[in-house]
Amino acid sequence: MSDERDVADAADANETEEQRGGRTAVVTRPQRPTGKRSRQRAEADETSGAIELTGDEAKKAKKAKKAGASRGQNPFVYVYNYLKQVIAELRKVIWPNRKQMITYTSVVLAFLVFMVALIGLTDFGLAKLVMLAFGSR
C-alpha cells in the first residue's frame, strides 16, 4: 500500500461538514446473530449453571419451560396454551380499516383479472400455433 492514500484520508478527516458537501458518515453495528451458535452457547451456559438472565430473557425462559412442561403432561393443556398464545398474537395485529381493505381488495382483483387474461391469451395463442403446426388440414 502507498502512503498517499493515508495522507488523503488524514486530510479528509480534518474537513468540516460544509467542505464535504453535507455528507456525514453513519456507523451502525451489525445486529447480534441469532443462529445456531448462539443457541448452542446459551445451552452450554444453561447446563453449566452460570446463567444470568435479564428481564426479557427470564420471561422467555420461563415461558419456554412452562410450554415444555405442559407438552409432556396433558394434550388439552398444550392446546389451551397454544390458543392463548394465538389470541395474544392476534391482539398485536394492526387490522386495516375499511378504506384500506377496499383498496387492497381492488388491487388484488385487478391483478387477478390481468393475470387471467394474460395466461388465457397465451394459452389460446399457443393452442392455435400447435393446431397450425400439427393439426389436420
From TrEMBL:
GO biological process: intracellular protein transmembrane transport; protein secretion; protein targeting; protein transport by the Sec complex
Highest taxon, organism lineage: Bacteria
Primary localization: membrane
Keywords: Cell membrane, Membrane, Protein transport, Translocation, Transmembrane, Transmembrane helix, Transport
Location within or outside the cell: Cell membrane; Membrane
HAMAP family: SecE (MF_00422)
Family, similarity comment: Belongs to the SecE/SEC61-gamma family.
Functional description taken from the UniProt entry: Essential subunit of the Sec protein translocation channel SecYEG. Clamps together the 2 halves of SecY. May contact the channel plug during translocation.
Name under which the protein is recorded: Protein translocase subunit SecE
Organism: Mycobacterium kyorinense
Lineage: Bacteria, Bacillati, Actinomycetota, Actinomycetes, Mycobacteriales
